[in-house]
Amino acid sequence: MNRSSVSDSTQLNSHIPKHFVLVLLICLILLVVCVITSLAFGSRVVKLQDVLDGLFHPNVDSYGASIVQKRFSRTVFGLFCGAALGVSGALMQAVTRNPIADPSILGVNTGASLFVVCGIAFLNISTANQYIWLALAGAAITAIFVFGIGSMGRGGATPIKLLLAGAATSAALSSLVSAIMVPRSYVMDQFRFWSVGSVGSATWDAVATFTPFLIIGLLVGIISGPALNALALGDELATGLGIRTGTLRFIAAFAGVILCGATTALAGPIGFIGLISTHVIRLILGPDLRFVIPMSAFSGAIILTISDVIGRLVGSPGELEVGVVTAFIGAPILIILAMKSKVRSL
Q: Taking a C-beta distance cutoff of 8 angstroms, is the pair 151, 157 a contact?
């Protein structure tokens, strides 16, 4: 075993990135700003005083304060979904050692969508709890399938092979979704708004249903961070450091699938959040996953909430669904990343 590599791993797990405290403080401030703007902007713009009344004085009898209270569940749900997708993207990139891995790019979102459509069409499901379990099953099966296909042949699971496998799988599953929906108008009516990706219909029941999955996924992801740092140095070195690479990959991937599947079940397939948020944090703080994983939760929450507000402003007096906004932002970023030579491995 290479002693310098072991030394690098030890330094990676002990060094605190420069400006970490400053970045954390900026993220907290941005989160507060996102919450205020999300509560203030919509089909009707609410004054700051009404926002404060709606948050801290719920008994105040004003139209603006009542609007804020109705938007609060949507804001909290959006923050939770963004955090989940950010951490899910960071975990998938770490497990696959692929800097362009993301639930939407690897077809995981589409797999979850297919299972939800099948549940609506053949099992008559209609509740959030039922959506979640089907979406988790679809996300897990699709993730395993895409990684298996991408690992075939010489070189193993390279970024480009995984990207192609994910794109092909996503296209095939999308065709199956359409084939199931088209002859069944009632399925199409129930599915079409969900399939775009939106947090607009969020309720406190959805937040309560989602919270346990978010907590489990976040805790497992954060705890896995130090070991994933060693995995980034290669399987042989990680094994030499006493890490069971197969078990680690399974646990981290499990956390990523939980976060992605639960989000997709309740908000629809929102893409590119995991890709964008993780790259922003890695660009600022470096590759240490002890910090990238939790900070991706902050950046994911911020990006999704901002995208939701943009969708409301652009689509006013209606709204543009957040999944459309994130796709519009994320697609060019994916093209740029795929064109870089560094995309071969993390």
A: yes
Q: How far apart are the first and last CA of the chain?
A: 20
Q: Say how far apart CA 84 and CA 72 lie, in whole Å.
A: 18
Q: Rounded to 5 degrees, what are φ and ψ at 319?
A: -160, 150
Tell me the one-letter amino acid at 222.
Answer: I
DSSP 124: -
| Alpha helical stretches, state H, the chain | 3-12, 20-40, 48-56, 63-96, 108-122, 128-151, 159-181, 185-196, 204-231, 235-240, 245-267, 273-285, 289-314, 322-339
The answer to whether 276 touches 330, Cβ cutoff 8 Å, is yes
- pLDDT tens, N- to C-terminus, the chain (346 residues): 444 444 444 444 557 777 889 999 999 999 999 999 999 888 788 888 878 877 777 666 677 777 888 889 999 999 999 999 999 999 988 888 777 777 877 888 889 889 988 888 888 887 777 888 898 999 899 988 988 887 787 766 666 777 788 889 989 998 998 888 877 776 776 676 666 667 877 888 889 999 999 999 999 999 999 899 888 887 788 888 788 888 888 899 889 989 998 998 888 888 889 888 998 999 899 889 999 999 999 999 999 999 999 998 887 777 888 888 888 888 787 777 766 645 444 5
Q: Which domain holds residue 326?
A: 77-344
In a domain, 197, yes or no: yes
Question: Which pTM was predicted?
Answer: 0.85
* CATH number, domain containing residue 201: 1.10.3470.10
Q: Which of 73, 62, 84 is nearest to 38 (CA)?
A: 73
Task: Note whether residue 218 is domain-resident.
Answer: yes
Contact 333, 279 (CB under 8 A): yes
- Quick check: 303 and 276 in contact, CB under 8 A? yes
